[in-house]
Amino acid sequence: MLLFDRKEFLIQNIELLKNAIKQTKQKYQFNIVAICVLANHIHMLIKTNNIKEYPDIIKNIKRNFSVNFDTSQISNYYESDSRKSKGEKSIWQRRYFEHTIITEEDLNKHIDYIHYNPMKHYNVAPKDWKYSSFNKFVQNGYYEQDWCNFEDKYNINELDYE
User: Fold this and answer.
1) Is the pTM of this model over 0.85?
2) pLDDT digits over 26-64, tens only?
3) Lower CB density within 10 Å: C or N end of the chain?
4) Which residues of 4-22 are buried (b: 16+ CB within 10 A; e: fewer)?
5) Side-chain-side CA neighbours of residue 146 (13 Å)
6) Residue 92 belongs to some domain of the structure
7) Domains: count for the chain
8) C-alpha to C-alpha distances, 3 to 7, 32, 45, 93, nearest whole angstrom
């Protein structure tokens, strides 16, 4: 999920995002398998029993965040006539990337890509990025602590799910 105009304010509003996800979990049953929050976008892999609810889950997270977000944090904030007519704030891009996981290999590649994002965008090792599920995966034995060090970056760089 990408912020409108690639504005960068998600990290500063991480508690608001966490609350938006908690509120959405009260309405829909889903689990976050893997997540990485960056300044202007989120990579999130979720598991839900009802695949038809997936768009509603994403919409609800965005709405819960937007309703409580203080737009004065955004320089040059504006709302297009199209968004105003639909009662939307210009916070999130309307579209998002959705992919149904088909195989275990596909699942693993997507989880790797999610956890690789701090390296890709900020040259920060996944173990040092606190806005991700990476360290939980390390605790559960799925990754080594130094996975995706600076040398490994170039082996993973071919993955692109944005």
Assistant:
1) no
2) 999 999 999 999 998 999 999 999 999 999 999 999 999
3) C
4) beebeebeebeebbeebbe
5) 4
6) no
7) 1
8) 6, 20, 18, 5
In degrees rounded to 5, what are phi and psi of residue 48? -130, 150
* Amino acid identity, position 125: A
In a domain, 126, yes or no: yes
77 catalytically annotated: no
> Are 126 and 144 spatial neighbours (Cβ–Cβ below 8 Å)?
no
- Determine the Cα–Cα distance for residues 114 and 162; give it in Å rounded to an integer: 10
Phi-psi region of 123 (alpha: psi -120 to 50; beta: other; left: phi over 0): left
Per annotation, catalytic residue among 28, 54, 96, 131: 131
Q: Taking the CA of residue 157 as centre, how many other CA atoms within 13 Å lie in the half-sphere pointing to its CB?
A: 10
**Residues whose CB is less than 8 angstroms from the CB of residue 24 and which lie 6 or more positions away in sequence, other chains included:** 30, 57, 60, 61, 64
Q: How many residues does the chain have?
A: 162
CA distance 81 to 93: 15
Domain containing residue 103: CATH number: 3.30.70.1290
| Token pair of 112 as six digits | 């790797």
Chain-centroid distance, C-alpha 29: 18
